[in-house]
Specification:
The complex is a heterodimer of chains A (about 280) and B (about 180). Chain A is an alpha/beta fold and about 280 residues long. Chain A has two domains: about 5-25 and about 65-145, Dihydrodipicolinate Reductase, domain 2 (2-Layer Sandwich), CATH 3.30.360; about 150-275. Chain A has helices at about 10-20, 30-40, 45-60, 90-105, 150, 165-180, 200-210, 220-235, and strands at about 5, 70-80, 85, 130-135, 140-145, 155-160, 190-195, 250-260, 265-270, 275-280. In chain A, the strands form three sheets. In chain A, strands 4-2-5-10 form a four-stranded mixed β-sheet, sandwiched between helices. In chain A, strands 6-9-7-8 form a four-stranded mixed β-sheet. A two-stranded parallel ribbon of chain A has the order 1-3. The longest helix of chain A is centred in the first third of the chain and has 18 residues, at about 45-60. Chain A starts with a strand and ends with a strand. Chain B is α/β, with parallel strands linked by helices and about 180 residues long. Chain B has one domain: fumarase (Alpha-Beta Barrel), CATH 3.20.130. Helices cover about 20% and strands about 30% of the residues of chain B. Chain B contains four helices and seven strands; from the N terminus they run ββαβαβαβαββ. Chain B has helices at about 35-45, 85-90, 105-115, 125-130, and strands at about 1-5, 20-30, 55-60, 95-100, 120, 135-140, 150-165. Chain B starts with a strand and ends in a 14-residue tail after the last strand. The chains are: A alpha/beta (about 280), B alpha/beta (about 180). The structure holds iron/sulfur cluster. Iron/sulfur cluster (SF4) sits at the interface of chains A and B.
Chain lengths: ~280, ~180
């Protein structure tokens, strides 16, 4: 493993660009999933999909944010052991890139400093929610999403009985989506974290959302679970915009971890059609 | 698809049915959480309101900052459910239309039926699309609330769907169970 040097300036520039783009351009996998939903939808939700596609075009042409809720940033940072980082600290470089992107992009600053006492807006869209991982590679990778809260407020954690089994996991996913109805701006994308502890399952549910919508889980057991959960969600009939139809969900993605023999944590993160994510690799 | 001018045509709201697609043009008052809380307090205290709500329509919105040369930034709907505690007071003050996304409580639906009011669904997340259909935007009340002030928006061909009509009938995903 060759050691590599990455400068804080290089990360700052790449990440700021990526965050600026993330709020005005949807990733290709998401846009194509919405387009194919529009093609097969026959219910009332078809109208919502039509306007969503028009909105995607307008945002990328006008550079106006796709949605006025430009979200709270959730970032996964993977630091390769072969990377030496030079200049400003890694954490403050990431913060600066986010704050500057939100200012330069005229994005809405949606983050308050104290959740309860005063709720004063920090004016910088910080703090972000940042998770750190250390890998054996020689790259530095930052994966981000801009998480809107209309959908984030629909997330749920279920501490299932260890013997509850696969059907109970699917039922939990369905229960979260049914309760959410039209509030999370369907068609939704669902991230499911299974295993670990309550908090680990929740983090995994976010990490699962970073997967490409059209990837197939390499583990056939979970690939089948994802497909079955997707069909169950689309049978709900909520439809795009909550207007009714066959397409309520674009994809279900799982991520799993070992857990205690006495438990089966399941965390469900719901994301809206504005499934904004980006990745920077140096 | 029906075209409706606001506030002139708000008398036609009683002819709209849940599921109808409508294009709204004219005046919408942009107001969200803080403005609603203040308006409801004024109504409860029998005090005069800083904007005349009779026959008017509110839009639940919290836009991104306006980029240079544009009247407004991205401005899709925000969740109506959060305004539910304040909505009956505003309906009592003459409000007849609401535009937003998400479910409404049973108490709001009952108050809507009494007032003959309509709740329109604006396509969630379509902030850029709606921004292009706003002709002007100006603060008209509660300036101290900054982005949560009340705005007067002039809109053209704002696409919406009737989510709950004036008889209290609604598309299922917009009716809360409580
Ligand atoms: S749920 Fe998503 S698409 Fe809908 S308003 Fe919030 S951020 Fe925008």
């Amino acid at each position: 493993m060759a050691g590599r040097t990455v400068s804080s300036e290089a990360l700052y520039r790449a990440l700021k660009e990526a965050v600026l783009r993330m709020n005005v351009e949807l990733p290709a996998d998401v846009t194509s999933a919405i387009r194919s939903a529009f093609e097969r939808e026959t219910g009332r939700g078809r109208t919502a999909l039509k306007y969503i596609l028009e909105n995607i075009d307008i945002a990328s042409r006008s550079r106006l944010p796709l949605c006025q809720d430009t979200g709270m940033i959730v970032a996964f940072v993977e630091v390769g052991r072969g990377v030496s980082f030079e200049g400003e600290g890694l954490s403050s470089t990431i913060d600066r890139a986010i704050a500057d992107a939100y200012r330069e992009g005229n994005f809405r600053k949606s983050v308050v400093a104290d959740p309860l006492n005063g709720r004063a807006n920090t004016g910088m869209n910080l703090p972000a929610v940042v998770y750190w991982d250390f890998t054996e590679s020689d790259t530095l990778r930052v994966s981000c999403m801009a998480k809107g809260f209309g959908s984030e407020n629909c997330g749920k954690v279920f501490m299932l009985n260890p013997t509850a089994g696969r059907e109970a996991v699917i039922a939990s996913i369905v229960e979260a989506a049914r309760a959410a109805g039209g509030n999370p701006c369907p068609p939704i994308v669902v991230g499911v974290g299974i295993g670990g502890t309550m908090d680990r399952a929740a983090v995994l549910s976010k990490r699962a959302l970073l997967r490409d919508l059209d990837d197939v889980n390499p583990d056939p057991y979970y690939a089948a679970l994802e497909a079955d959960a997707l069909s169950a969600l689309n049978a709900l009939g909520i439809g795009a915009g909550g207007l009714g139809g066959e397409v309520t969900c674009l994809a279900v993605k799982t991520a799993v971890a070992g857990t205690h023999l006495a438990g089966l944590p399941v965390a469900v993160t719901i994301n809206c059609w504005a499934d904004r994510k980006c990745r920077v690799e140096l | 698809m029906r075209a409706i001018r606001l506030p002139e045509d708000s008398g036609l709201f009683s002819t709209l049915r849940a599921g109808d697609e409508v294009l709204l043009s004219g005046v919408l008052f942009g107001a969200r959480d803080q403005a609603h809380s203040r308006l409801a307090d004024l109504v409860a205290g029998g005090k005069p309101l800083p904007v005349q709500l009779r026959g008017q329509t509110v839009y639940y919105v919290g836009p991104t900052p306006a980029p240079p040369g544009r009247p407004i930034g991205s401005c899709g709907p925000t969740t109506a459910t959060r305004m539910d505690p304040f909505t009956p007071a505003l309906l009592k003050a003459g409000l007849v239309g609401m535009v937003g996304k998400g479910k409404r409580s049973k108490a709001v639906v009952a108050a809507m039926r009494e007032a003959g009011a309509v709740y329109f669904y604006a396509f969630g997340g379509c902030g850029a699309l709606y921004a292009e259909r706003v002709r002007s935007s100006a603060i008209v009340a509660f300036e101290d609330l900054g982005p949560e002030a009340i705005y007067r928006l002039e809109v053209e061909d704002f696409p919406v769907v009737v989510a709950i009509d004036s008889t209290g009938e609604g598309l299922p995903a917009f009716l809360a169970s409580t």
